[in-house]
Please model this.
Amino acid sequence: MLHSVGHFEETSTWNGNVGLAAHNRGNQCNFFQYIKNLKIGDEIIYTSEYGKRVYKVQTNKVILETDWSYLEQTRDNRITLITCEENRKEYRRCVQAVEVASYEQNIM
Model:
């Protein structure tokens, strides 16, 4: 069992739309356990080898499991978090947030 947040390979890891997925219940590592409680304007902090970005939540909604539109490329920097919906296997929780601050690393 993996003990981390998963990355959607077809999305960016830094610039553009960063798509991430994780469990919210039923596992030892439930990184997205409280994702449904995020509200418009809440901050999400994302740290990677490239630096740290702060995002503000714009969307927190339930989508069909077949709706991949929220993972499409974007011109702005945003983060998209996706997890399952309890007892609703055909749906997913989708939170999308837009960058408000960036602290980039100097990588040589």
Observations:
- DSSP finds no helices and six strands in the chain.
- Residues 6-104 form a domain with the Sortase; Chain: A; fold (CATH 2.40.260.10).
- The chain has a mean pLDDT of 93.
- The chain has one domain: 6-104.
